[in-house]
Amino acid sequence: MLIDTHTHLDFSQFEKDLTSVIDRASQADVRYMLNISTDPASIVKTLKLTEKYENIYAAVGLHPHEADKINDDDIQLVRVKTEHPKVKALGEVGLDFYRDYADHDNQRKLFRAMIDIASEKKLPLVIHNRAASEETLRILKEKHHDSLTGVFHCFAGDADFADEALKMGFYISFAGNLTFNKSHLAETAGHVPIERILLETDCPFLAPQSRRGKRSEPADVKIIAEFLAKIKELSPEDIARITSYNAFRLFGIGPEPEAKIVYPIRDSLYINLTNRCSSDCVFCPRSRNPVVKGHNLKLQKEPEFSDIVKAVEKYPAEYHELVFCGYGEPSMRFDLVMKTAKHFRGRFKRLRLDTNGHGNLINKRDIVPEISAVFDAVSISLNSPDPAEYQRINRPDFADKAFPALIGFIRKCAAAGLEVAVTVVGFPGADIEGSRRLAKEMGAGFRVRKYNDLG
Ligand code: SF4
Ligand SMILES: [Zn+2]
Ligand SMILES: [Zn+2]
Q1: What is the edge-to-edge ordering of all strands in the sheet holding 262-265?
Q2: Closest residue by Cα to residue 330 from 261, 402, 255
Q3: Do 343 and 386 fall into the same domain?
Q4: Fewer beta carbons within 10 angstroms: which end of the chain, N or C?
C-alpha cells in the first residue's frame, strides 16, 4: 500500500477524467491521497472531493502565492474548515520567493497566521518552500513548540537543510523531481532516515523522469517509491510499508500496522519471539513504540512454535535468510529459538541470531556450542567498549556481570567459527572507534547501526 501525501486533484487538469485517475491510483496500490488546498475556492472543492471519495483526505490552508489577495474572512474560513472530519493537515502554507507572486511581508504574515491555526487545532503543517529556506526555518523556529510538526513537501534542499527540519521533528517529502536526471536529491534522500520520509506526486506537477513533461497523477508515487528503494537499498515493498506508516504517524491516514511475529525486510525474514529483554537500552523504543521499518513488533502474546511455523510458511521461498530478532532478547526463549532454527535449517540459506550477548547468563550455561551447530551468523550488540559506559547505556539486568559475560560470549562465538558482527548504535557520543578496535581484537566483524535501524 502507498499513500500520495500531496495531490491537487481539485485542479482543472483533472476535471475531465478524475475517476480514471483514481482508478489508476488503486491499480498502482496507492490506497489513500491527501489533497492539498491552496486558496478559499480550492478548500471548498477539496472538501467536496473528500466527501465523494472515501480514500481522499484533505489539508486546508492558504498558499503563499495568495498572500496579497486574502483577508481575515479567508483565514477564518481555514480555521472553521479544520473541523471537517476528513481534514488531516494545515496546508499548503509557507514562503515562495522564487515565483514572487506576493509581497514577502504579506507571505510572512500569512505563514505565521497559518502556523497559529495549526497549533490551535493540533494539525500537522504541509510546508511549501521555494527559494526561502532560511526564512521558512526562522519563522518555524520562532513559533516552534513540542507538538508543532509537519512535513516539508516537495523537498528540494540539501542534507544540512533536511537536518534542520528533522531536528524540529518534521518529515521530508519527496516528489517526482527526486527521479530527475542529474538531480542532487538522491544524495539528500540517501541522508534522510527512511523513518522520516513521505512520498508525494504534487500532481498535476513534477511527473517523474520516465513521464517528464506529462501531467503527473497519484499512480506515479509507485515510480518514486521504486526509485527511493534503490537509493535506500530496500525493496519497493519496504518503502511502501515504511512511508505509509510514516503518513499514518503524521496525519493519521490509513490503518495502524498489525503486530507481527514474522516480518520481512529486504530479502530476509525476521522472527519476533519476545518483547522481554535483559537489557533496557536508553535508546530502545521497545516500551514506547516498537516499530521497525514499518512493522509493529508489539506482541500481545508470545508466539509458540506452531504460530511461528505458520507465519513463516506464509512467505514465498525467495527469502534467503531467517533472523531471530525483534524488540526483545531471543535467548530468553532459547529452547524455542533452537527448535525453530533446526526446523527451518534446510529451507533458508542462512540463519542468524541477533542478540544482546547475555544468553549464557540468562540460560545459566554455555549456549555457544548449540548456536554454532545450527546457526551461520550472530549479530551482537555492544554499544560501548567501556564497562561503565556499557552499564549506563545498556542498563543490563545482570549489573556488572553483564559486560564480561558479553565479551566472553563474543569471543566464544568467533572461536566457534560463527560469522560474528558486533554492533553499535550510532547515537551522539558513542565510542565507535573504540568499539571497532575491540571487535577486531576479538576476531569479530563490526557494524554501526543507525538508531531504530533493525534489519
Ligand atoms: S538489547 Fe535490543 S531489545 Fe533489548 S533493550 Fe537493547 S535495543 Fe531494546
Ligand atoms: Zn507546494
Ligand atoms: Zn502543492
Answers
A1: 262-265, 268-272, 321-325, 350-355, 377-381, 419-425, 445-449
A2: 261
A3: yes
A4: N
Across 2-15, b (16+ Cβ under 10 Å) vs e yields bbbbbbbbbbebbe
Mutate to test the pocket of ligand 1, among 272, 283, 288, 329 (most ligand atoms within 8 A of CB): 329
Mean pLDDT of 412-419: 98
Taking every pair of Cα atoms in the chain, the longest distance, rounded to a whole number of angstroms, is: 76
pLDDT for the residue 428: 80
87-131 residue pLDDT tens:
999 999 999 999 989 999 999 999 999 999 999 999 999 999 999
C-alpha cell at 164: 534542520
Domain region containing 106: 2-251
pTM of the model: 0.92
For ligand 1, residues with CB inside 6 Å are: 277, 279-281, 284, 286, 327-329, 356, 381
What is the model's pLDDT at position 455? Answer: 45
Q: What are the pLDDT digits (tens) for 248-275? A: 999 999 999 999 999 999 999 999 999 9
Task: Answer yes or no: is 454 within a domain.
Answer: no
Point out the ligand 1 atom lying closest to the alpha carbon of residue 279.
5
